[in-house]
Design goal:
The chain is mainly α. It has 20 helices and 2 strands. A two-stranded antiparallel sheet has the order 1-2. It is globular.
Length: 438
């Protein structure tokens, strides 16, 4: 390489650096998230230092972990102060590591969860910046929840770990890392099953973005994670493990319900109410999938038909070019479509959940600003709805009026999502080229 070439390359790099530096410092979308992280880090440190820890499940977690570390492999015998263990095996491994690092001491665990809070916030800010749905100032909403700060650093719930992994999986999926994303997603499920609320929209996105072989291999990888993590307990007593770790029939206590406290307790605990909510959940998912998320493809039947035709064509033209042809026919989903579908699918599950306890707010809080800005509502109404949700989650104990109002706000948001105009979910060639340059 001659001197003139080196000088030209050096000049090009210098010009690029000069362009990037002003863009960074002049574009609030780039610098503001870093400022939020720094400010929230200070707030988290102050909360840990000055706000008393709230004892709820930590001692139970440590008791369950101690039983596991003591050699117990019968899942039905792993218990704590609040009752038997009801989470999959990943929970035990993670909290065993936490116990090892902290010695079971709350203060050290709070520091760990403070770091976890900031990692989760960083991932969420990354997702929001990459999708560019909110104005830069609205990112502040992600740092304003008193309840969520409490869930992370004052109560140390496993929901925090599960949702951090879920958000990490979503960030990977935005960049078409489907297999790795599914592995991380399965890891999140192994901490707490609420992550399965994201499974229906995730499967739909996979069918739209991958060929059938890729879908099967990604699902197989996720299943292997569950088998591997649960293997010590499956080998000992598979029924005990599956019935305890994946119990879908649990009935929560009416007193702790944040969303359906206005429903009389006899109705709340009845199977009829549970089945009605399940039917509503499935109906809403199918309706959104058919009329909103798959509207561009012509609905669910046409999407499935196109997959069948593609599969049939692939097998009828088996040859060295068949794989390349199949891959070239696949389209890249827009990041906005991926996030909207995932967040909306989870939100439908939240609306139809029989009981939401206070820590369950972390299941959807970080998606709320995004969903509000995907509606056609004016900004002032979006902010009122956001404040209304936060207010309801900070009423303790919940009552008839707070729970009824929370359901009302949820339904208003859901209607806003339903009435928002559908968009082309696929990247155009121009958008692909622009995204590669980002």
């Amino acid at each position: 390489m001659d001197d003139s070439t080196m000088v030209a390359k050096s000049a090009t790099k210098g010009q690029r650096s000069e362009r990037l530096a002003p863009n960074f410092f002049q574009n609030p979308n780039l610098i503001f998230p870093y400022a939020l992280l720094f400010a929230d880090a200070l707030l988290v440190a102050l909360i840990i230092a000055y706000v008393p820890y709230t004892k709820i499940d930590w001692d139970a977690y440590m008791s369950q972990v101690s039983g596991f570390l003591g050699g117990e492999r019968d899942y039905s015998n792993l218990k704590g102060d609040t009752g038997p263990l009801v989470y999959p095996a990943g929970f035990l491994y993670v909290y065993s590591a936490i116990q090892y690092v902290t010695g079971g001491e709350v203060y050290q665990a709070q520091i760990l969860f403070g770091i976890l809070y900031l990692i989760n916030l960083g991932i969420i800010l990354f997702i929001y910046v990459k999708t560019d749905v909110l104005p830069w100032w609205a990112l502040t909403l992600l740092c304003l929840s008193k309840r969520v700060h409490s869930i992370f650093v004052l109560r140390l719930f496993n929901d925090c770990i599960a949702m951090t992994l879920l958000h990490a999986a979503l960030a990977l999926i935005l960049y078409q890392r489907w297999h790795l994303g599914l592995i991380i997603f399965s890891g999140a499920v192994s901490i707490k099953m609420n992550v399965l609320l994201y499974a229906p929209p995730l499967l739909l996105l996979m069918l739209k973005a991958m060929d059938i072989g890729g879908v099967i291999s990604a699902l197989a990888a996720a299943a292997l994670v569950q088998i591997f993590l649960g293997l010590p307990f499956i080998l000992y007593d598979p029924f005990a493990y599956i019935s305890k770790a994946f119990n879908l029939g649990r009935v929560f206590i009416h007193f702790w319900s944040v969303n359906f406290k206005f429903v009389p307790e006899p109705i709340f605990v009845s199977k009829t109410f549970a089945i009605s909510l399940l039917i509503a959940h499935l109906t809403l998912l199918i309706a959104f999938a058919h009329y909103r998320w798959c509207k561009y493809e012509g609905g669910i039947p046409k999407l499935l038909h196109s997959i069948f035709v593609s599969l049939k064509s692939r097998f009828s033209h088996i040859g060295p070019t068949s794989k390349n042809t199949s891959q070239s026919s696949l389209k890249i989903l827009k990041k906005e479509h991926i996030v909207t579908t995932m967040f909306a699918g989870n939100f439908i599950g939240i609306v139809c959940a029989r009981s939401l306890h206070y820590q369950f707010y972390s299941w959807y809080f970080y998606s709320l600003p995004y969903l509000l800005w995907r509606t056609n509502y004016p900004t002032w109404l979006r902010l009122i709805l956001f404040a209304g949700v936060e207010l309801c989650w900070n009423v303790y104990p919940s009552n008839f009026y707070s729970s009824a109002f929370l359901l009302f706000v949820h339904l208003v948001v859901l209607v806003g999502l339903w009435t928002s105009p559908p968009e082309n979910p696929y990247e155009s060639n121009k958008e692909l080229a622009r995204n590669k340059n980002k």
